[in-house]
Amino acid sequence: MSLFALPRLRLAHLPTPVEPLPRLTAALGGGLELWVKRDDQTGLAFGGNKTRKLEYLMAEAQAHGARMVITAGAAQSNHCRQTAAAAARLGLECLLVLVGPPGDPHPTGNRFLMHLFGARFRWTTPASRDEDLQRAFQEAWAEGKRPYLIPYGGSSPVGAAAYAYALEELLVQQDFHPDVIVLASSSGGTQAGLVAGARLLGYRGRIIGISVDAPAEVLRSRVAHLASEVLDRLRAPGTIAPEEVEVVDTYAEPGYGVLTEREEEAILLAARTEGLLVDPVYTGRALAGLIDLVRQGAFAPGTRVLFWHTGGTPALLAEPYRAQVLDAASRYNGDQS
Ligand SMILES: *Cc1c(COP(=O)(O)O)cnc(C)c1O
Question: Is 2 an annotated catalytic residue?
Fold first, then answer.
């Protein structure tokens, strides 16, 4: 069982551990077995799913003779933080096109870390993000920087392919075959890689993407399209249809990065039953979704459910999330603190 090998650099600490979650399992009931795949521990500046993608993206950048990488993201983008770290490690310049107002004189969380890695910034709005990214690329090219453009979330076919390899890693690990994999899904690359990997490796379990922002229909076709491109990159025949992709968008409704009581509960429950950190934007929302699905009885007793932790923990220390979670924690304590 081995996939076609794409060029790769070593940036990640692999394999990441797979761990049982006995106290969270007991807290939720339902007779399930909950496990976690610790991709919050991939290394490279606090880890996360982008480290895996960057191993292939940066290999491609180097093959193109790039001296600079350019990418885009939210002000608290984990992808931008990890790209800036990888660029520093490889001696490349890094330009980040971030969505948001530039103002903050005291950046926290991921934004603080992007500064630390020496990235340069441009600020944009959601509406002009793609255009500004293209313009930044063209300007850098004209200046002779030989830039390499990494798409939003690192979700090019090459970046997404990292998760086909990640599924292979999981399946050989302690011969662990979960019935269901649950993960946070946004630009869709992580889920696309897993779905393509499942096809290639004959994995028959469900892969449920909890949408962080997009409506299910949009995300399903995005993932299917990317997964088909991953198959192509891995020189495998066939395509993935949107109907083969499982997405739940019930928890996306408050919008990207909006912390609600659901995410607060998930963050506190993971912290207090397992000493496990999940983030306010992605993994907190995905775990909240998983918790809700378990409570609704969506999984039969005995089901082995693997929560694929995709990282993001530095955002927990970013304002305003830190203050909000602190507030929620004191309410959760019955105001004892
Ligand atoms: C980027 C990110 C995701 C989403 O991954 P996609 O491949 O963009 O769908 C999930 N969790 C965290 C912590 C992330 O940073």
Answer: no
